[in-house]
Amino acid sequence: EAATGKGVAITTREACGVMGLPLKGARVILQGFGNVGSFTAKFLVEMGAKIVAVADHAGGVRNANGLDVAALMAYVKQNKGSVNGFAGGEAFDKDTIFAQDCDILIPAALGGVLNKETAPTVKAKLIVEGANAPTSPVADKIFKEKGITVIPDILANAGGVTVSYFEWVQNLQQFFWDEAEVFEKEEKIMVQAFHDVHEKVKKHACTFRSGAFVLALERVRKANELRGW
Question: With contact defined as beta carbons under 8 Å apart, do 159 and 6 qualify?
Answer without folding.
Answer: yes
